[in-house]
Amino acid sequence: MPRDPDNQARVIVDAQAMSPGLRAQIVRFDIAAPTASLFPPSDTYYLNMCLTPRPPNARAGYRDRWGPTRLEPLGDIVLLPPGETLFIGGGSGRQASLVCELDPAPIHEIVGQRLEWDDQHLAATLDISSARIRALLFRLTEEVRHPGLASARMIAFLNGELAVELGRYCLEVAERPITGGLAGWRLRLIDERLAADAPPPTLSELADLCAISVRQLTRGFKVSRSCSIGDHVEQRRMEAAKRRLMAGESVKTIAFALGFASPSSFAFAFRRAVGTTPSAFRDRQGHFVTRESPVGS
């Protein structure tokens, strides 16, 4: 079952697929109260990709490494390495995720060594930014949700590709220099600006906000978050779009509110990022929200 160590969420598994070294599940969490959970160490890699926005203010930290006060924002893809303890705190609400548990042996075989994570590089696991990993997880989600011809073989193929991409990502993170990134206060300013109910900022605006040049901003952000700031802004814009869709806003209203030139350009960007159209996403998640009874019923 998906990890809910402190029993603070109602957990429902909608679909599941198994392959040697992989268990993939589409899971719904009904979180009745703000979370404060410890995920204990495991012997597998635990991978979670949100299919709906995470609860507001979701934060996490590796307390054994960082102490109790350092908490980083959670992205929509999170990877918990084997042997690590993760504290998660955040808001309440309903959330749907693809949850995968992966045998570390194929990943370490691809890398050629057992990966060792220091406290600086663990931060990169809380917001996986790889577009290739994201695309594979969307394909895996659809195969788990709607198994097709030779589904078991397809799941095995996707598992192999996922092991390769995770191995590449983990090795890249483990070998990345830990100097040259942006200060924590600058990253917080950027996150706060992106969370505002406004069209996305320009690079110049973010650079001015951080009191640095655009070049320093782009280089430092990539070191800190392992993705370009442009990709990060676009991911956050898609998260805002998901929230607005789930709130019932029209595609046209969302498109112009988020700074797109037209509803069609918004629909194209959303499908490229999320793997489905805005209307299909809203219909699917509306079904998720309404078909369950309240916690404790």
Please render the helix and strand layout as text.
Layout: E1 9-19, E2 22-31, E3 35-39, E4 45-50, E5 59-61, H1 63-66, E6 72-73, E7 77-80, E8 86-90, E9 93-102, H2 104-111, H3 119-122, H4 131-145, H5 151-175, H6 184-195, H7 203-210, H8 214-225, H9 229-246, H10 251-257, H11 263-274, H12 278-290
Antiparallel strand pairs: 1-2, 2-9, 3-8, 4-7, 4-9, 5-6, 5-8
Task: Report what the structure shows.
This protein is α+β, with helices and mostly antiparallel strands. It folds into 2 domains: 9-175, Sandwich (Jelly Rolls); 184-290, Arc Repressor Mutant, subunit A, CATH 1.10.10. The chain has helices spanning 63-66, 104-111, 119-122, 131-145, 151-175, 184-195, 203-210, 214-225, 229-246, 251-257, 263-274, 278-290, and strands spanning 9-19, 22-31, 35-39, 45-50, 59-61, 72-73, 77-80, 86-90, 93-102. The strands form 2 sheets. The protein has a 5-stranded antiparallel sheet with strand order 1-2-9-4-7. The protein has a 4-stranded antiparallel sheet with strand order 3-8-5-6. Helix 2 (104-111) packs across helix 5 (151-175), helix 4 (131-145) runs antiparallel to helix 5 and helix 7 (203-210) crosses helix 8 (214-225). It is globular. The two termini are 21 Å apart.
Q: What would the keywords be for this entry?
A:
297 residues; alpha+beta; Jelly Rolls; Arc Repressor Mutant, subunit A; four-stranded antiparallel sheet; 12 helices; 46% helix; disordered C terminus
